[in-house]
Amino acid sequence: MTLRKTLTAALLGSAMLAAPASAEEFKFAFQGDASTMDPHGLFETFTLGFQRNVYEGLVARNGKMEMIGALAESWENTSPNVWTFNLRKGVKFHNGNDMKADDVAFSVERINSEGSDLKTVASLIKDVKVVDDYTVELHTPAPNPILPLQLEIFYIMDKEWSEENGTTEATSVAGGDEGNFANLNANGTGPFKLESRQTGVKTVLVKNDDYWGEMASNVTKAIFTPIDQDATRVAALISGDVHLAWPIPVQDWKRLESADGVAPLTGPEARTIFLGFNQEDDELATSDIKGENPFKDVRVRQAFMHAIDIEAIKKKIMRGSATPAGLMIAPQINGFNASQNDRLAFNVEGAKQLLADAGYPDGFEVTMDCPNDRYVNDEKICQASASMLAKIGVKVNLLAQTKSKYFGKVLAQNDYDTDFFLLGWTPSTFDAHNVMSALISCRGGDDNLGAFNLGGYCNPAINALTAMVQSESNQEMRQKMIEVAFHIHKQEVGHIPLHQQPLSWGVSEKVDVIQRPDNIFDLRDAVVK
Amino acid sequence: MTDATNTRRVPRTRIGRFFDSDIWYSFIRSPLVILSALICIAFFVATIFAPWVAPHNPFDLAAIDLMDSSLPPSWLEDSDPRFLLGTDDQGRDILSTIIYGARISLMVSLAAVAFSMVLGITLGLISGYVGGRTDAIIMRVADVQLAFPAILIAMLIDGVVRGLLPREMHSDVAIYVLIFAIGISGWVQYARTVRGSTLVEKNKEYVQAARVIGIGPITILWRHVLPNVTGPVLVIATIHLAIAIITEATLSFLGVGVPPTTPSMGTLIQVGQDYLFSGEWWITIFPGIALAVLVLAINLFGDWLRDALNPKLR
What we know:
The complex is a heterodimer of chains A (about 525) and B (about 325).
Chain A: H1 2-18, E1 25-30, H2 45-51, E2 59-61, E3 67-69, E4 72-79, E5 82-87, H3 101-111, H4 119-122, E6 127-132, E7 135-139, H5 147-150, H6 159-164, H7 181-184, E8 192-198, E9 202-207, E10 221-226, H8 230-238, E11 244-246, H9 253-258, E12 262-277, H10 298-307, H11 310-317, E13 323-324, H12 348-357, E14 365-371, H13 378-390, E15 395-401, H14 403-410, E16 420-425, H15 432-440, H16 460-471, H17 475-491, E17 495-508, E18 511-512, E19 527-528
Parallel strand pairs in A: 1-10, 1-11, 14-15
Antiparallel strand pairs in A: 2-3, 4-5, 5-7, 6-7, 8-9, 9-10, 11-17, 12-16, 12-17, 13-17, 18-19
Helix pairs in contact in A: 10-12, 15-16, 15-17, 16-17
Chain B: H1 2-6, H2 14-19, H3 22-28, H4 31-48, H5 50-53, H6 94-130, H7 132-146, H8 150-164, H9 170-184, H10 187-202, H11 205-212, H12 217-253, H13 265-273, H14 282-309
Helix pairs in contact in B: 3-14, 4-6, 4-14, 6-7, 6-9, 6-10, 6-12, 6-13, 6-14, 7-10, 8-9, 10-12, 11-12, 12-13, 12-14, 13-14
C-alpha cells in the first residue's frame, strides 16, 4: 500500500511537472554572448541590442525603425546648442525607484567614466542641466540637429541603485573589471528584468509587470543561449530547442525551408563590409617591401579593388544574398545616393598594369587581419580575397581570429596594429554622418574624428565636410556635402567597400518576431503563438 | 635434380632470407593483410609524391578560383570533370586537398611516433637496466601519465604552448608543437615494453659474459639488449601510428592542430562540417572516408604484424 501510494504520488508529481506552463517562454540563440550587462561597457550592436530589453534610452526606434520617445516624451532644439528633453512621468526602475532627471544626468556622467566604451556618445554632450525632476537640458559643443538620433543606444541607469552597489563607473571590457556590479546585474526601466546570468552559458529574462509602455509581446520569460558553432545552432533551431537563432549560414537557408516548423527570415542588413589599408605608416610592418608603403599609392589601392571579383563572392560565398556596394553606406542609410554606388570593375589585367605602373610589377607580401566569427562568412571572404589578390601577384598572409582577439589587435586601444583588414559597419544613427566621422575622417586630430578609421586614410577636406554636415540643417545642402565627401573617398579608394550582408535569421513557426535592418532583435515585438 | 626438389636450400642473401621467412609466408597467405599493406603503400606513395600525383595544388592561392567552389563530385549533376571528388567552399579540389592533407597528417604522425619511440625506448632501457630508484621514478611517472587519456595530454601541451607564444608565431610552430604533444602522450607503452624485455635480457648469460669482459652499459644496451626488443616495439609503433593519425585529426578538428592555411584531414572534416546541413556532403565525407580507410589499413597491418612476430601464436 505504501509503495503504491508513493508511486501514485510520484506519478502525479511528474504529471504536474509535465503539464504545459501557462507562461509564454521564448528561447533564442546567437553566435556569441552579450559581452556585458553594463549598458555603458561595450559599443557593439549585439550587446547593446540585447541590453535594450532591460534598459531604455531617452529615445528609441520601433520595429519600423521610426524614431519614438522612450523615457523622454518629447524633445526640442530649444536653442542651437541646447536640446531639451521632457521625461515621461511615472516610469519606475525594476527595483521600484522613480526615473527622474537626476538619473539622466548621472548616466551622462557615467559614460564619461574611464571604463566607458560610449565615449563617442559622451563627446556629443558638453554639459547636462537638470531643470526640474522631469526636464533635462543637454548642451552640445556645436549645433547638432541630429542629436536625438545619436542617443538611441545611450541607456539610462538608476543613480541610487548604482551608488548603493558601487557601480558609478562603467565596466571596462578591456579586462580586470569583471567584478563591477553592473556587469552581472541590471536595473533598468525596460519590459524585461534580468533574472539570472551565467556568462557565456545562459541569460534569463522575465517580464516586468510594471512596464510603463505598451508592447505586442506576450512573452513572460525569455531564455538566451549563445551557441558558437553554426551547425549546432541550426540543429538547435530545427529540433525546437530554440525559437529564434541567428545568424544562419547562408548555405543553410534551403535546409530551413525544407524543414518542418521553421523558416529562414532574411533581408538586407544596413551593415557594409569593406576592406581597408594602412595608409598612415611609412613602411608596412608585415610586407616584404621595405622603406616605403605601397598602400600610400592610389594606383595600388585601385589595383586591389580591380582584383576583387565581387560577383563571385556574391554568388559563391554569399549564395546570391549580398548586395555589392560601391559606397561605404547602405541604401537604407540617410545620405545614400544610388548613382554613386557603382564599383571599379573586376579586371585582373588592369589591376596588374596599375601595380606595375606603381612600381610593383611582381606584387608584394602583406598580412591581412580578419575576424572569423563576427560577420556573415567573414573568414571565407578574406580567404577568397587572398586568392583573388594572389592572381595579381600580391601574397596575402591571412590572420583570421575570433572577434575579441581581432578587435583587441586592430582597434585604437592597440594603436591600430594592422596593415590590411576586413571590417563591417552599421551606422547606429542610420545617417551618413556617422560613417564620415567614425570611418573616413582623418584620425588623431582635436576634433576626435576617425576613431574607427583603422587604416588612417586621411583627406582633411572630409573632416571639414563632416563638421559642416553635423551642424547643417538644410537637408538639400547636407545631402550635397555628404555626396562630395563620399566622392572624394571613392576617387582615392580610401577603403574597398564589398557588400551589404544579408540578415539571416531562422525562426520557429511558433513565434512571430520583427527583423530590424540593424540586426537587433527586440523582445518587445516577439509573440509566442 | 632430386636434391633441389627435396631439400630446401637456405638462401644466402638477406632479401632471399626474408622471402624464405615465416613472416613472408604468413603475409602472402593473407589477402586482407596484402590489401592493407597495399593501401598503406598507396597512401605513402601518393603523399610523398603529392605535387605530381595530385591533379591540382590546393595550397597555391593563385591557382584556385572562387567560381569553381562547392562543385559536387564528377558523377553528379552540375559538376566539373576537372574535379573528381568535387570542390570545397573556396574552389579547392577535394581529391588534391585530401592528398596534401594526408601528407601533413602522415608527416606529423610519423614524426610523433618516432619521437615517442626514441623517448620511450631510451627511458625503458635506462629503467630496466639501472633499476632501483631510477626505475621506480620513471615507472611511476608512466603510471601517472597512463591515468590521463592521450588526447587530454596533447590538448594540455598544445594549450600551454599557445598561451606562451605570441599569436603571430602560432602558424610557424604549430606543426612542431603538435608533433611534440602527440609524441609525448604516447611514450609510456614503449617504455613499459622495453623495460620488461630489458629486465629479462640483462640477467641472461650472454649479457653477463659481455659485462665480465668489460663492455660498458651503453654498448651492452645498444648491441645486445636493443635488438631483442625491436619486435614488440615495431608492433607498438604500427598501432601507435594509427592512434597518432586519429589524435592529430581530432586536434585539428577541434581547431588546436595545424593552421587552417595548410589543412590536414582533420581540418578538412571540420571545414566541411559547416556544409553538412546544406547538402554539400562531399567536403566532409570524402576526407572522412580517406581517414577511416587509412587508419583501418594500418591497424589491420599492425594486428597481423603482432601475431606474426609473436612465436607463441604461431
